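Two proteins follow. First one:
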Amino acid sequence: MTKAAELAKMGEVLTNSQIGGRRNIVINGGMNVAQRSTSETGKGADAGYFTIDRMYYFENGTTDVRFTQSQSTDVPTGEGFAKSLKFDCTTADTSLASDNQLTLKYRIEGQDIQQLKWGTSSAEKITLSFYIKSTKTGTFIVELSRESRKISQAYTVSSSDTWEKKTLTFDGDTGGSVVTNDSSNRLEINYYMGVGTNYSSGTLDTAWTGGTNANRAVGQVNAFDNTSNNILFTGIQLEVGSQATPFEHRSFGEELALCRRYFIKYDHAVDGNYARVGYGTRTNSTTVRGILNIPTTMRTNPTTKVSGTPRCEGSGAANISSSGSVGTNNGPHSVGLDLTTASVGSADDAVVIDLGLSGEFTMDSEL
């Protein structure tokens, strides 16, 4: 084999093979982790994290759109994916209001994108790749947004209900301020699925600008204009440079650990009935001050909520009657609890906190 042939073969291997090293800035881009739920109905009117971890739905204005959001097993063939994020339109809105914005967002901490060197003359290009399957064909828009700086690109869904891979390279942002090195939201990937004229009446900003709303999603189709419409995403990868590499498939355990920096759920249906999740001490017969065990350091002090009927078990078992937020003196390493229970025992009794037959605790420190 000649030297030229050897070099060509090496280039082919590098292009087609999995390349080592942490390349994908996106966590859970393969949609494998869904701690909150695997399916939620009647969504669309309000923003939130509903199913797949790290994937945030944003809605602006008032719309009739409703959808079922789910973790689906519909995936591209032969690409190594097992799950996707699915939006199944159940109530259509054929005429979106001018201020409507229906968007899938992914948010990134500033300390995770320092390597981009944005805000300097050495700003790096980045490449976004993903798979999409949409009933609605036509022009779709992806936007990168960092504080007051924005850039958008259009891509085309060519075939209805067919998985298509899209690759978009964005210039590095040499303008604006240097990305703050902290745990706050400093970059968003915005996948537009439908917008009103407030976001589409101008000229698409394909270079970094201060961000005029009318220029953000020009040409975007309405993916929710018919109840037969579905839109699915998987394989989201964001990496430094102008070359898209094969999707970085991480193990489920690794992705789960990364997701738990932002959200942790203890659920009797997953962890088991009466699973023990913490401990505490009674301050009197109906109140407990306790601590939840958490497996990782969270991004910031989490908001802790309880639902169902977990228990405190010590000098007798008593259902926890608290509801809503129960965290107190939380830190990123530990979660304190103030709980109300049925009357059992007395002050200074030690208790174990378990999930009973229907208990749930959630700890949320999402961006």
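Second one, unrelated to the first:
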Amino acid sequence: MKSSPFTLTKQKLSKKAAAAKKARDIAAAKTPARRAKKAENQRIGQRSDSDLHHTKNGGLKRVSIKNNRGNFGKGTRNE
């Protein structure tokens, strides 16, 4: 597949600033803490029928998409 001649960026940065941001992003992604979180998420795995809910004690719990994104019936306007 050929790549597009257009680069779609969310921020309008100069080439120098974009290169610096890319270097910072890669450095942040390669920290030991970030690698451990990524590995944990890959072990748990995402499924199309449920979401992973972050609990107050820092754990993860698999819940329905409807409940997780709707704040368990309370709505999201007052979060």
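SUMMARY FIELD: The beta strands are 51-54, 60-63. The longest helix spans residues 15-29.
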